[in-house]
Amino acid sequence: MLNSSDYPALTALAAVLHSGSFEAAANRLSVTPSAVSQRIKGLEDRLGTVLVLRGTPCTGTETGRRLARHMEEISLMERQLAQDLGQSDKASPVHIPLAVNADSLATWFCAAMAPIEGLLFQLQIDDQDHSADWLKCGKVMAAVSSRDTPVSGCDLHPLGKLRYLAVATPAFIARHFPDGLTPDALSRAPSMIYDEKDRLPDIWTTARTGRRMSLPTHRIPSTHGFVDAALAGLGWGLNPHQLLDPHLATGRLVPLSPDPLDIPLYWHVSRLSAARLADVTEAVKEAARTCLVQ
Questions:
Q1: Which end of the chain is more exposed for a tag (fewer CB within 10 A), N or C?
Q2: Residues 6 or more apart from 183 whose CB is under 8 A from it?
Q3: pLDDT at residue 91, as a whole number
Q4: What CA–CA distance (Å, rounded) separates 46 from 38?
């Protein structure tokens, strides 16, 4: 069992897993790397299990991640206590691990984080269909996800829909779709995916044609890179409409179809953290109300 004497070691553990190295953790804690190593080694010896996998970067074992998450919860409680006592200006910043999809980060999620003081957000970027998996394995406290059922042990808050348009340059459309969005043309025209988890082009083409097909794809793991690639005529892609407005207005990009693809998003937050992350949840919901399709 843990006790209060383990807090220095838990703090060191969390610092190593956040920063990725013993040296960076030592700088954060104003101690030597040797002191950080000794604290963690002492805790490992007492618990009889490895907590940190040494490497570049250092990563945590399952037990190590759980203990670091426990320390984050304690830090949140201390922050809340400092606020209740009117001493929030003296509280140390708390690291909050969250999972969010790249398109939300590029369009609206920064507006949710900006008003929150005293928290240092540690973001894991993953596809909206998979971001909730980070909650399942206890690596984050909350996640933006397209999953419409609550992760076990979590509260679910509907946020709205992120609207996508399939776009390309007029020259690209004239070259690859002279007869319109036919299945044959779609099976030949270069398209773009974010990564191997990106299902949006498949969803969109299936809705347009009524059948699944194999698409030739460029893999471009960057939301803004998607827009740049479309502007360069590299391929067609589905982009958040917020990023497209200036290019649609000038005619540099043109929709392949007037029909958008709306992806519902939800905020999943661990019930263990929900009360202490209430201000974060409200900020996320407010930003979503402003920026997403309701």
A1: N
A2: 209, 211, 213
A3: 60
A4: 12
Give the integer Cα–Cα distance in Å for 76 and 212. Answer: 47
Strands 217-219 and 261-270: unpaired
For residue 89, what pLDDT is reported? 61
Report cis status (omega within 30 of 0) of the bond before 258. no
CA distance 217 to 231: 16
Low-confidence spans in the chain with pLDDT less than 70: 87-91
What φ, ψ does residue 74 adopt, rounded to 5°? -65, -40
In total, the chain counts a number of residues equal to: 294
By the 8 A CB rule, do 151 and 132 touch? yes
Q: Which residue, 118, 110, 137, 136, is CA-closest to 76?
A: 118
Looking up tokens 């999620």 gives: 109
Helix axis angle, 7-19 relative to 33-47, nearest 10°? 120
Q: pLDDT value at position 88?
A: 61
CA-to-CA dists, residue 234 to 44, 173, 187, angstroms? 52, 11, 15
CA 246 to chain centre: 26
Residue 239, C-beta contacts closer than 8 angstroms, at least 6 positions apart:
164, 165, 167, 223, 226, 227, 230
CA–CA distance, 155 with 24 (Å, rounded to integer)? 34
Beta strands in 194-260 (DSSP E): 217-219, 237-240, 254-255
